[in-house]
Amino acid sequence: MHRTPRPLLTALALACSLVLACTAAQAADPAAEIDAETELYAANDTAAAPATAPAADPTQVWDLSPLFKDAAAWEAERQALQAELPKLRALEKDFGTSPASLRRALDQLSAVQLRMRRLGVYASAQASTDNRNPQFQERAGQARSLWGQHGASVAWVNGAIAQLGAAKVERYLRAEPGLARHAVRLQETLRLAKHRLHPEAEKALAALSPVLNAQGNTRTLLTTVDMDWPTLTIDGKPQRLDSTAYVKLRAHPDRAVRKQVFDSFFRSYGRLENTLGSTLAQRVEAGVVNARLRGYPSAVAASLADDAIPESVYRTLVAEANAGLPTLHRYLKLRQKMLGLADLGYHDIYPDLVQTSKRYTPEESARLTLASVAPLGAPYQAQLAKALGERTMHVYPAPGKSQGAYQSGVYGMTPLIFLNHQDTFDSASTYTHEWGHGMHTILANGTQPYETAGYPLFLAEIAAFTHELLLQDQVLKTAANKDERLFYLGEAVERLRGTFFRQTMFAEFELQVHDALERGEALTGKRMTQMYCGLLKKYHGDEQGVMKIDPTVCTEWAFIPHFYRPFYVYQYATSMAAASHFIEGLKSGDAKARETYLNVLKSGGSRHPVPLLKDAGLDMNSPQPYRALLRQMNVLMDEMEKLMAEGAGRNPG
Predict the structure, then answer these.
(1) 214-227+272-387+411-653 has which fold?
(2) Using CA atoms, how far apart are residues 33 and 20, in angstroms rounded to an integer?
(3) Count of CB atoms within 10 A of residue 115's CB?
(4) In the structure, what pLDDT confidence band is assigned to residue 37 with cuts at 50, 70 and 90?
(5) Catalytic residue among 39, 434, 451, 556
(6) Full-model pTM
């Protein structure tokens, strides 16, 4: 057996300490991350708290008692799991001595992992609803700490599987039917074995996993609790300009107000440019160190390896988005025309192109969502209706509540849906988006065993964006007049801007900062601002005269929490392209197309996503899906221009 020299172990531990994190998810089971199935969809576009306080309505606040009756029950389970961890270490002795012993060990590991998941979901769900609550934060910290201990307890497992070898594992799989549920884990561990370190090194990395996300947690507390936000006078009233207020006010109808909001908000982030640059640089360095230790050619390759995503998929997306920038510039010019502006600034992106007074309450969002998914079949609608009737949503913003929206949950239970609902159409879109994730979870859980029910992120967003596109089709079909249709078309094109181009711009920024560090360049907040500024100018046509980028807004990178989860955002763009592909078959009413799509969702994590999608008729390694999406965006703009020529959009709806 190869042994890692002691000096390397010491250097490895020191390196982890210096950068605050080495990716230890690979040291244990990848599914053992507390937030493995959550997302922060549009977290950079969080809705602000409504003027009223609907969050007081108990039906709009989730009930976590099915997870744990109360905090005392949670603490009892935490202590019980703490006592269970030594037993996991003891499994190493007889691990894989026979097919039956291998099944027993893996069954026990899965059972504990599921309990850990339940513990972590409860703690993180509470913490995200009120970051000011010290008890919630303490429980979340305890859960992270326990995951670290758990990781150290099972750090030996993947090495032990690798020692069995492919031939023995395949023989065991044939001999023991009970191992079928563990086949994917066994085969994936063998595939990634060449990137694993000596067991002692893996154990050291696993023990350090509580600080894996330390930088992101620091950023969250800094920006949601400790930030010294300015107070502006808006419409004659004082307004504290925090993150949620910014998202509401950036769409203000008065352009001067929007400019004031952007300048003040991003100057606030600019004052923390050095601090937030340091935290993000540490997170980037963690990825670079991890890739080098494990023998990957780059941080992006290491990040994509778990799901066997070719790096070419990522870079093809970036290349095609850059090639498609004329389509984005066309939209920006159309936006300028519709808003009646002499020029266009970054603060002009968010106002509605067509005004509407229509409100989209959670009840209306639920009604529209249920109606829109009819192409997915009556059984799908019935499952969704049942889930919507349970108290698993935290709907409205509240003081101390985290930004964004996500879906999370525990195998065998109705998923939790976290929202910051604003009663706008955008909120309705986010509502249906998150329930796209929820239904994906329900279908995968109903088809797959626990071990393969957790789907990869590359597939996760496809279900969510398919829901959004179905909603788009529903409202366009039922629009009452040309003005309302133009409003929905504008929302559709804006969503493509925000999902395809904006997220790809974020993905390109991540490539740039990681590539720079890998070249040995210094990575500071000021350098990140320069990089981000260059991307803002390129994507928004600064040189072409489409939009002049004010340097003040170039600190926007510090506002984006996604960057603390490296190489994640690109999947929004790839998934929107994939959803656009599937939606054509679903809208046609083709039963085979519906079955093909639902089978993708039901597959959970049983197959690698790129070949799974290719078998479903979609090659994500080619430029075609992205070019097709750009063609659809141009078709939408063609109709918008036609309706404008007919006089639509001149009167508020």
Answers:
(1) Neurolysin; domain 3 (1.10.1370)
(2) 17
(3) 16
(4) very low
(5) 434
(6) 0.84
